[in-house]
Amino acid sequence: MVDAPPSPDALLAGLDPDQREVAKALLGPVAVLAGAGTGKTRAITHRIAYGVATGTYAPSHVLALTFTSRAAGELRGRLRQLGAGQISARTFHAAALAQLAYFWPDTVGGSAPRIVEAKGRLIAHAADTIGLRVDTAVLRDLAGEIEWRKVERRTLDEYEAAAADRTLPTGLSPARVVDLMRAYERMKDDRRQLDFEDVLLATLGMIETEPRVASAVHAQYRFFVVDEYQDVSPVQQDLLRAWLGDRDDVCVVGDASQTIYSFAGATSDYLLGFHRAFPRANEIRLERNYRSTPAIVSAANRLMRGRAGALELTSQAPDDGPAPAILACEHDGAEVAAIASRLRELIDAGASPRDCAVLFRVGAQSAAIESALQHAGIPYRVQGGQRFFDRPEVRQAVLLIRGAARSIVGEPLTKSVSDVLRSLGWTSAPPEGAGAVRETWESLQAIMGLAEAAGDASLAQFSAELVDRQNTHHEPELEAVTLSTLHSSKGLEWGHVVIAGAVEGLLPVSHATTEAAIAEERRLLYVGITRARRSLTVTWSRRGGIRSGDRAPSRFLADLHTDSPGAGRPGPGLP
Q1: CA nearest neighbour of 126 among 79, 187, 173, 171
Q2: What angle do CA 108, 112, 113 make, to 5 degrees?
Q3: 430, 438, 443 from 425: Cα distances, Å
Q4: Which residues lie below 8 Å from residue 468, measured CB to CB, with a gap of 6+?
Q5: How does DSSP classify residue 550?
Q6: pLDDT tens for residues 351-408?
Q7: DSSP string spanning 194-251?
Q8: How far, CA to CA in Å, does 211 sit from each of 121, 199, 206, 216, 534?
Q9: For residues 366 and 339, is the Cβ–Cβ distance under 8 A?
Q10: CB–CB of 144/205 below 8 Å?
Q11: H/E segment holding residue 292
């Protein structure tokens, strides 16, 4: 028996006054300025469900947009729980790709071009055609330049003029980069391929130049919700306006203090300037923080106070919690040992490893931390590493569960799933120590955890959920400490967070030399701080190695106003 969807009153009952205002603002332009941990996803999903429950929205006419497959999967999951599971919740790219595939046969003819799966490989081939020798790092930088040009909607000539003010791969002039871009585009055309940025541009072009396409899109989608609006690029903003047409039923949600992708074309200008684009817009602020303790929220507020668009958060936690700790170490080796010691202390005191994270500015910092955790016997996972559903044991488990779902009916879900997992070597008790055996067990245990959380679902329903999670990269949590760059931590949270390497040259990073770049580094630290619910530890070391020279603590540490030992003065450079 399917539960009846919640009533409109029930949907509003669990919201705070500001969230309730968001949920009831169903028509016209709405800008929700939502600080970290203020329940923005709760507010917008209840808004959509309330619109459906009151009959204001037909589910097929709503398009909810976000920036990652994981976030889109979370939106869909929450909307299903609220009785609005028919809503289309997609990334910008997924929505554009679906429209491109649908309209291409009638507007261009034939099937849509294939999508470039490995841009770096194609760039390398293009470089060969013009006699350009590039290594992996340069390929990555060139891919970033290609993406930036397209999301900014600049021609090759416009890019060459702008490139004089950009940091290009070492040894390459703007003209040479443009030569590479031309070769790349020729190669794509010859192979009848599009890259992900082309998908946005081609969809936008169809809507702008084909009245039939525009009419069909406008008839399909009437109401829009855009999450993480501070991250939109010019091409995404233009595509959103094309989808809207002359309507203004759009709700945007974002936080200017969490704008950390400027290098990829993201800008908070559209969020902060929403009133200029939509003069009758309703602006609602969410500043009640339900995630972090007052001590952590206070540190975050101090870091961002006086910055453009910064919100003043108020913690709703019942107790203050420990003050953020700043640990000064003599050298990098001592720092990673201190991080492992801190995590061991937390875990021994009852913290779950999956509720702990170590965050850092650049990926190269991960190796030393991994080594220290291995030595301490602390399980860990690297955010952005091998995807959960790409692991061999997980692929096999999903395959076997799908097969079992065709023949097993009426058996308790947990028994069915545990029988499948036991055939792969899973046991109810974890193996001793760390290493590959433990990692395999953690993967299978995560699937078991999903089954336990699925309640009365049938094996067929659980199998379908696994396939949906696999397709949308909606991964379960593993019983392991998360290691992540600050960028990759966006949208996540943990009870206990350690931020490593808070020194000049890493945070802010050495190539952040302008005032705008330093401001972005500050926002990046803000994102890291606001991932923590219960405790925050920031570490830095005076030297890279035992015999290396001294270095300064991050200039941002002075703004945290802590009495912890080792809280140094701000380093030299821009404020």
Answers
A1: 187
A2: 115
A3: 11, 11, 12
A4: 73, 474
A5: B
A6: 999 999 999 999 889 989 998 998 898 988 888 766 778 888 888 999 999 988 888 8
A7: E-HHHHHHHHHHHHHH-HHHHHHHHHH--EEEESSGGG--HHHHHHHHHHHTT---EE
A8: 37, 19, 8, 9, 54
A9: no
A10: no
A11: none
